[in-house]
Amino acid sequence: MPHFNRKYQLNKRNRRVRIISGSAKGRKLRQFKGQNIRPTTDRVREALFSSLQSRLGSFSELKVLDLFAGTGALSLEALSRGAAYAVLVDQSPNSVAVIAENIKTCGMQDRTRLCRTSASIFVNQNQAAKDAPFDLIFLDPPYNKNLVTPTLNGIVENKLLSGCGIICVEAARKDPVPSEVPGLIQLDRKEYGSTAVSFFSLSKPGEDQP
């Protein structure tokens, strides 16, 4: 999800996305109004979670990390589908306020931890240690900010991903997302219009990219 600065304003009448499936199905989530806001659309989220379902089999009891969480839609969708717990991270006060409201809307206060800090600080300064490792990590940084590679490196170096876990990286279709990251293997890359989603897992010793 995108990072927001002070020029962005909340807009109660703005188009809302909804939880697609699970215990909170149909709940409408607060969004933002402003330039360069690009919430993950329902269509992309539905396709993304279909891909995850086929790989994971079930979301039951998974531990989720949502970096650059924006509105929290991705991790809240995972919780609705059965994930046990989610940590949502964003440094924008506006975003944190919206996430808190969306958590309440979905009735998931007891299954979430909300952190107002940058993804870099969270990943690299032991703020994730109490909850790591995570089974599913969402990474949806602002486009064109070169944040994907250092964040992936931090996830690997700090052992934040479980042995069977998956990282989902959302980016603009034309933005470079590395297919090779030390310690990770790219499982797949899918394009949905102008959006591309890359899936990574931990590589085993001697394992090559597919």
Describe the structure.
With 210 residues, the protein is of the alpha/beta class. The protein contains five helices and twelve strands. It has helices at residues 42-56, 73-80, 93-105, 119-124, 148-157; strands at residues 9-10, 17-18, 28-29, 32-33, 63-67, 85-90, 112-116, 134-139, 161-172, 180-181, 184-192, 195-202. The strands form three sheets. An eight-stranded mixed β-sheet has the order 7-6-5-8-9-12-11-10. Strands 1-4 form a two-stranded antiparallel ribbon. Strands 2-3 form a two-stranded antiparallel sheet. α5 links the parallel β8 (134-139) and β9 (161-172). The radius of gyration is 16 Å and the shape is globular. The model is unreliable at 1-14 (pLDDT under 50).
* Chain-averaged pLDDT: 87
Number of beta strands:
12
Q: What Rg, in angstroms, do the CA atoms define?
A: 16 Å
The order of strands across the largest sheet is: 7-6-5-8-9-12-11-10
CA(first)-CA(last) distance? 28 Å
What portion of the residues fall into strands of 2 or more residues? Answer: 25-35%
Globally, the shape reads globular
Q: Characteristics of this structure?
A:
210 residues; eight-stranded mixed β-sheet; alpha/beta; two-stranded antiparallel sheet; globular; 5 helices; 25% helix; 12 strands
